[in-house]
Amino acid sequence: MRSGHRENVNIDVRVGVRIPETVAIYPVPEEVVSFAPEFRGYDYFIENDQIVFVAPSTHEVVGMIEYEGRAAADETRLSGARPCPVE
Question: Are 81 and 64 in contact (CB under 8 A)?
């Protein structure tokens, strides 16, 4: 994941919140899907040291995990979250 995908959305980011269309979101990269396949098909952005997973069709937040960005992908750390279904 590239740290260049950081956003400052100025809203309360939590599961179920719809992210404005102006926020740039990106497909979840294979480096995440390879060890957390349940994130396949989601988009993401990084905000305040969290990876925020977004349903691409609705722009609703489906989950978040802590992110520590580094230059090399093998140094990226994701810690124990799984997507939450949005109803």
Answer: yes
